[in-house]
Amino acid sequence: MNAILRTLLYEWKERKLPLAIERDIHLDISRPPEIKNAMVITGFRRVGKTYLLYETIEKLLETYPREQVVYLNFEDERIISPATDLLTDLLPEIQAVYGQKPKYLFLDELQLIPNWSKWVRRILDTETVQIFITGSSSKMSSAELPTELRGRAWETKVEPLTFKEFLRFKKTAIDKEKLTYVKEEAARFCFLFEEYITFGALPAVVLTQSEKKQELLQSYFQTVVQRDIAERYKIDNDVALRTLLKLLLNSSYITISKLTKNIKSLGIPIGKSTIDSYLSYIETSYFLNELYIHNPAVINQLQYPRKVYFVDTGFMTALSTKFSKNMGRLFENVVYHKLAQSKETMYYYKDNKGNEVDFAILGEDKTTALYQVCFDLTDEEILNREVKSLLKAKETLKCQNLNLLYLEKTETFKLPKEIKLLSAPEFFL
């Protein structure tokens, strides 16, 4: 008998599920039982993966009893030393407690258990149960799944809230029709959008009162550093890891050499290969994405600085060492994530004269769209620079789809006709 499993299973039978605010993403529960694939729900810690499971469970409980829809959280602190035996005993214990095997099995943070993927494969091959798994590591993504689950798992990635979902969580809405002619509605959009890009879009942070948001974000950061990076990868040099993360949060561009030099200058001994490994671990936790340069003249992308974007702008605000908010950088970060939803290949463009475009979208070996992000177009010098860079990139990359995104603009300027002007409301609503 596995005492901890029995305790968790008895608790599940009586447990009341918390209310979940509906997201735009849903899990498919209509699969026929003969399709024996697991559903893997991935994403950064605290983006709402567990609540997506709860929402799915609630729907299933309209048809099936609790005994047939079972949920377990492997981050429960009572599971002191996660071992493979826990999984080996799971179905027999469910049968012992409930008198039957489940039809649906929801396993939260399963990657904490050794050999979890081999167990999932065995259950898929020998049982009729439908399995839903969550994980806060990209090692569970479809691109990096263990060999035994290749072709046997579907991935659903959960991101922080979109702006539309953010409005739903705030129990409000923006009337797009009124935005152009009602100043109060435009002002309300700006107020809400500034909160969205300043404090980010992690569900619990959005629902937390303003004075507690930074504290909550900092506690999330500590958990990510400790559990998802330091403990998972057995990092002893905790000071170097935290210093690297703080440097990243205050950087728009990075190179391994510069990061190593900066950390060493603080008296922390570290080598380039260690920095490279730490960056890989940070990306695996979904905390960070890197964007590489795209230019036909560039032979080796790795020799050029990479741009960095974070899973949530709230961390940039809560952990930045700079005294004032860089609204332009926050705006660019949320635009990156909106564009990334299309799953298309994305780079940034820069030529040898310093002309730069924030995002170049590639498809079928050609550039299909260029996006320049400018928070404030009221500065004529900045506007001219952004337009010039777009036009230079257009010629070099042979791309006709030019877009300039903005939040604030003056009414007195004129754009070249080939550039499409996109306001934040148009892009995010």
UniProtKB/TrEMBL annotation:
Q: Which residues form the signal peptide?
A: none
What are the DUF4143 domain coordinates in residue numbering? 226-373
All copies of domain AAA, residue ranges: 37-167
Q: Which InterPro entries match?
A: AAA_14, DUF4143, P-loop_NTPase
Q: What is this protein called?
A: AAA family ATPase
Where does this protein come from, organism-wise?
A: Candidatus Shapirobacteria bacterium CG08_land_8_20_14_0_20_39_18
